[in-house]
Structure formats: C-alpha cells, structure tokens
Design a protein that fits this description.
alpha+beta; globular; 144 residues; single chain
Length: 144
C-alpha cells in the first residue's frame, strides 16, 4: 500500500475523518480508497476486467488501522453486517473473509472503532457472490 497516495487522498477532504475506509491495492499497483461499502463492487469489476487480484487490504478509521493478511488467498469477501440482541444496542461491522484451501475464515470488525470482535470459519455457500473477489491466477492454476 502506497502510504503517500493514502496521505494525499485523506488530506484532500476534511470530511474524511468521519469515514471508515476500505483501502485496496491490486496486484497491478492500482489503489482504491473506499468511503462507502457499495464501492467494493467497483473494485470487484476492476479486478475481473483486468485479471488482477487484491495485494493489500486495510481498514482504517482516523489513525486506527486493521491490516488484513491476504497472502495466498483464493478469494476475498467484504460485507457490512449487524448483530443485535433484545434490549441491547445493535452493533455494526465490516466482515472480512479470506478463502484459502477451501476454508472461508471471517473476521468481524466493529465500526467505526475497528475492534476485532468475532472470528469464525464459514462455508462459501454462506457468502454473497457479489461480495467475493476471486484470485483468477489461482483459479487458472486449479483448472490446469
């Protein structure tokens, strides 16, 4: 991740201090700094059209940062999620999944604090297809 590009982008708009960012760098060096979750589909489209994958994935709120280990991943998964209980406040999360060796490991980060609250293994069947970015290089390798 190019920290200089991030700093320039972040400083370009004073309202950036109020957002949780999804920061992405692809294998061809392209950077995406997502303010809104809905922009994840733009990253997915870019990766598919250019046959690239995510090299770096970070979450950031102000100076708090969560760096996601994507080394060797077959696919990445990013969704917004909530957890609630009767009589308690509903909590909002960004759930990040990394598919490796057929196992989808998910981590729920409370937003905006980016506190890692829950970690679990899930099946690919429980993932929204539109939120998955596949590593086309690994897919091609598996098909050979």
């Amino acid at each position: 991740m190019d920290s200089q590009k991030w700093a320039e982008f972040y400083r370009s708009d004073k309202s950036n201090t109020g957002f949780v960012f999804i920061k992405v760098m692809t294998t061809d060096g392209e950077h995406f700094f997502l303010r809104k979750y809905e922009e994840w589909k733009d990253v997915k489209k870019y990766c598919e059209e250019n046959s690239v994958f995510v090299q770096d994935l970070h979450l950031q709120f102000r100076t708090n940062q969560a760096i996601i280990d994507v080394e060797g991943a077959d696919a990445l998964y990013v969704v917004r999620s909530v957890l609630g209980a009767v009589g308690q406040e509903t909590r909002h999360y960004l759930t990040i999944g990394v598919l490796s060796d057929g196992k989808m490991m998910k981590v729920m980060y409370a937003v905006p604090e980016l506190i890692r609250e829950k970690e679990y293994e899930d099946s690919l069947d429980n993932c929204f297809e539109e939120a998955l970015i596949y590593n086309e290089e690994k897919k091609a390798f598996r098909e050979e």
